[in-house]
Design brief:
about 85% helix; 6 helices
């Protein structure tokens, strides 16, 4: 092979090497960008969930403070509730809808259980300590009065801890966020 042929083969090898290197760099950049996009999406989803869980817990804590104070006052002194001191669970229920939207299913179930526990606590407290002329039919009031007030408050506390555990697990589990 003469010098021209060797130079041509060498030039082809250099060109092929450059093409292979360029393709490798492009593929590497594409894979890196996709991975970074997934990471950013995962972080964003985690933050959205965290905000939804925080808003729900804020409503839960307001409800817990009001119900807890009224429960302890009734148990300790027999003090009856004033209508203006009663708190509707509606804000907590509304915040629970955002938790339902953001998921996952285990956290949604825990939020529903917590809402139900607090609603039951409020109903039992109202039956025990609410005004007699509130408009609850006597058979329903008797059913709620048969439930121990401290016991239902303790059950709400258990549901609260279960929600917290479920929410923490969901926030720590990045695989669920990436799967969406």
């Amino acid at each position: 092979m003469d010098a021209g042929g060797v130079a041509l083969v060498g030039a082809c090898a250099v060109a092929l090497g450059a093409v292979v290197t360029a393709v490798g760099v492009i593929l590497s950049a594409k894979i890196s960008a996709r991975s970074q996009g997934r990471t950013q999406h995962s972080h964003w989803r985690r933050q959205v969930r965290r905000d939804a869980y925080s808003a729900f817990l804020s409503e839960v804590h307001q409800q817990q403070d009001r119900l807890g104070t009224a429960t302890q006052a009734f148990i300790g002194t027999g003090r009856r509730l004033e209508l203006e001191l009663m708190l509707s669970p509606a804000p907590m229920v509304a915040a629970g809808y955002t938790v339902q939207l953001e998921g996952p299913d285990a956290v949604n179930a825990a939020a529903r259980d917590l809402t139900a526990a607090f609603t039951c606590w409020a109903a039992v407290l109202l039956a025990h300590a609410g005004p007699d002329d509130l408009g609850i039919a006597q058979p329903q009031r008797d059913v709620f009065r048969a439930i121990d007030l401290q016991e239902v408050a303790d059950m709400a506390g258990v549901a609260h801890r279960q929600f917290l555990d479920s929410a923490r697990q969901a926030l720590d589990d990045s695989s669920d966020v990436l799967a969406r």
